[in-house]
Amino acid sequence: MVQEAWTQPAMTLPGVDQLFDPEQFRASGHALIDVLTDRLAQELDGDANLIEWQPPLEAEQAWQQTMPEHPDLSPETFTRWIQQAILPRNLAMHHPHSMAHQAAPPLPMAALSELVSALCNQAMAVYETGPGATLIERQVIRWLNTFIGWPQGAGLLTSGGSLANLTALLAARQQMGAGIWHQGVGAAPRMRVLASALSHYSISRAAGIMGLGADAVIPVAVDGEGRMSIDALIQAHNGCTARQEQVMAVVATAGCTATGSIDPLQAIGEFCRARGLWMHVDAAHGASALLSKTHRTKLNGMAMADSVTWDTHKLLYMPAAASALLFRDDASSYQAFSQRASYLFHEEEDAETLSFNTSYRTLECTKRMMGLKLLTAFKLYGRQGMAALVEHVFSLAELFAGLVADAPDFELLMLPQTNIVCFRYLGNAALDATALDTLQTNIRTTLLEQGLFHLSQANVGGKTWLRCTLMNPYTRAPHQEALLDNIRLAGNRLLASSTT
């Protein structure tokens, strides 16, 4: 392999004390911040490449490297290596043409807080392994619960919405019988989970992990706005009752992945209360609208839930991953796990002290210090500043949906309820359903491989739609107009080539 400019073969092996040299950390840190700052500015201005696309098998060739026996980087060349070998190979998350997924371009100051968390490296299994980190997390959880309307609620931060949803459903499962943890699911009647047909795949995955089987999740039909149908929910519940199956939980979605739609939480909550059912709200994407006085009414009824998932690495603009799993009742937060480990959990401690040990409530033992970045953001910008971000990108979605609706050669799936817009390019040719679906996929692939725009796609109602998630507050009207122009150009070229 050709030696890269930053490598220095046969370098002297550093002594152990040099591995922790504070002054080297200072020098390299200053240099690295300069590199990252320049990169951030370039991305925000749209001057950096969005993505340097290579097929994965081809791209992997650059990483087929032998483990270095001796150092081939020096602290001085480390920064150049990051600048030239690492950053250009990433998707530029702060680029205004990055519109595909619900991953945030993180707040730079929150990213700096992550550096503090990484260097402090608090394990957080029990209070004594991360005292400050534990207290910070408890403060953040109190704030988030208060937004929902649970001033006495409880919860934890965990590594992603999938893990939060799994933990919530584990807690719901314990309601089916105290012996399940030790005896398995055979100790309870056959269990079912009712969830929107547009629910996140982590719900069925959780059912599979729990031994219920992915088929235990019964999809509930949605209306034309992508919202769970209450009539369909009643019908699904009645079907379970007729088959002598127990409904373990009803999962509502607030900001579904495909369309950003928000289920009718109030009606679902009333349905669950009347039947004594556990209600979990997967609000990984949409919960941040609670900060906004303009949009919080979209989440009316969330306080009726038993548990809520809230991804802060989405519309709270935190570096990934940090998800809050919140419980209306403190006791419910302990139900997911029933575990003893004498080297961590000391039963002679009183209940109040034990509540500071996060491992009772989460699958994770060693857990990253996730709360600091959230505490930092709220202290720097306040609720109003964080709400302004949410309101801004929601307005960008409304703007883009308007552009699509006004264009006769495009079709809009629905008006956005959050910051996700689904649409299709129709072109000028009469295409059958299959050809039109294929056209959307090929347009998306073309724009990605040319490094022009990053979009995603979704299948909704049996049709393929282009999907645009307006996460970046720098994605302004000119970028949106350029996207439609580039879709037209790519689409027309694809249609022309298919007829020759």
Give an overview in words:
The chain has 500 residues and is of the alpha/beta class. It contains 14 helices and eleven strands. It has a seven-stranded mixed β-sheet, with helices on both faces. It has a four-stranded antiparallel β-sheet with strand order 8-9-11-10. Helix 8 links the parallel strand 2 and strand 3. The chain is globular, with a radius of gyration of 25 Å.
What are the defining features of this structure?
14 helices; alpha/beta; 500 residues; 7-stranded mixed beta sheet
Chain-wise SSE layout:
Blueprint: H1 22-45, H2 56-59, H3 75-86, H4 108-120, H5 131-148, E1 154-158, H6 161-174, H7 180-183, E2 191-196, H8 201-209, E3 217-220, H9 230-242, E4 246-253, H10 265-275, E5 279-282, E6 307-311, E7 323-327, H11 351-354, H12 371-405, E8 410-412, E9 420-425, H13 433-449, E10 456-460, E11 463-469, H14 477-498
Parallel strand pairs: 2-3, 2-4, 4-5, 5-6
Antiparallel strand pairs: 1-7, 6-7, 8-9, 9-11, 10-11
Helix pairs in contact: 1-3, 4-12, 5-12, 6-8, 12-14, 13-14
Structural classification: alpha/beta
Rg over CA atoms, rounded to whole Å, is 25 Å
Helical fraction: 40-55%
Q: Give the termini distance in whole angstroms.
A: 43 Å
Unreliable stretches covering 5 or more consecutive residues: 341-346
How many beta-strand segments?
Answer: 11
Summarize the structure.
With about 500 residues, the protein is an alpha/beta fold.
